[in-house]
Amino acid sequence: MITVTDMRLSYGERTLFKDVNLKFIPGNCYGVIGANGAGKSTLLKILSGEIEHDKGEITIGAKQRIAVLRQDHFAFEQYSVINAVIMGYPRLYEVGRERDAIYAKEDFSDEDGIRSAELEAEFGELGGYEAESEAGRLLSGLGLDEADHSKMMSDIDETKKVRVLLAQALFGNPDVLLLDEPTNGLDLESIAWLEDFLIDFPNTVIVVSHDRHFLNSVCTHIVDIDFGRITLYTGNYDFWFQMSRILQKQAREQQKKNEDKARELKEFIARFSSNAAKSRQATSRKKVLEKLDLDNIPVTSRKFPFVGFKPDRDIGNNVLRIEKLSVKSTEGQPILDNFSLIVNKGDKIAFVGQEHNAKTALFDIIAGVKKADAGDYYWGQTTSAAYFSKEHTPFFNSKLSITDWLRQFSPDQDETYIRGFLGRMLFSGDEALKPVNVLSGGEKVRCMLAKMMLSGANVLILDEPTNHLDLEAITALNDGLCAFTGVILFNSHDHEFVNSLASRVVEILPGSGKLIDRMMPFDDYLKDDSVKSLRAEAYHHVERLKI
Q: What is the pTM of this model?
């Protein structure tokens, strides 16, 4: 259990937290939410001891072990994947190393024998004999092949390093688990596995996430950070969302009542302050007015960008025909193999599954960014496509201000129009003058979405557009795409985003070059027995090929 009492933290004149009192109880999962910059990650760092708070007390149960999801993906390059996971339980790893070092000695003394016996006993008590199998189970659940388990961390790509570090945090049944954006870099299958793991986890979990479905699935409580205050709500994200709407409405109504009352008091004071008979009443009302703190009823610090896509023309019946597209990696491995698909008017297609390179390759080809090795595709005459690429860094290798950068893509070059458009995307005032090469990941995504909104396209191609966005921006994007009247082809790891938007689901199966294509919402797709059978057959086929 963790108890936070009267905690406060300030940076210069800015107070990040004040008078924070919380209690985190075993068996519960606490989802930490708040606007960008509110202090979500900072709270986790305070709880882990990485950052020292200014005032107050944080009490952790005696001998309780805290595990933290590390953000430095390259901190364990000299270790094997399995050992990097086991290092999540430092004492177990240290005992194992000391034990192995003794057994490796050529001259084994009596003292070594006594010490090795002590270490063996502690190793067993800590679960050392099951450590490698547990680490392997975690890695497999998070989508790493068994062949990766014995590799060095330096030999696996960054997406796999992220999963190894998550397995490291989960390893060894810690008493308190602190997870900052644990779903980043995970596919939908791995996220589902993590959800099941955390639902069954018996101890305390405190997690920062922008994934609404994940928060709804695992959280028993929501920790809301807003205006330097931290408020604890019982229930998942949807419960908090509904409750916060009610509280905000009440706050706005109370503020309006106070403003109306202040106006009436000011009018009375102005009319009767010079009237001797009424002067006492006027003085009394001045005191009431002074007590009315009109600025101390904050509604929320959260800001929602405006995301809306308006096609310049309606789309016709012929949208896109893809015929036998094939593309290979630089090593000659097939990424797409004879891929064919017909996209219809009104389609909002979610491309799902574990073949992430295949989805990106397909989007790159039909957007005209790359060429296929074989096959072709045909856009209808009425179509115009805008593409959100997963790798959009090259767009921002410039010292242009955000205003001048966006002007390149705007049919209207007027400064007022550009600045107004950026204001709706939360780049107001001096923010719009920042050079684009210093923008954060979330700011770059908002710029790319603004570029797409200005295009007037009637087909939108989006490769993981929710990465780097906060909950408010994801909600705004989700709503904007649901209202879009054209065709959408997209890929995302956000379950709620996929399920609320997709009318059709396409999964590219591994190895076989086949696909599953269903006209149904995503949740229905996951429950469909025929889909389960086809997926099981395809993945079983791949495992046989490995053998």
A: 0.78
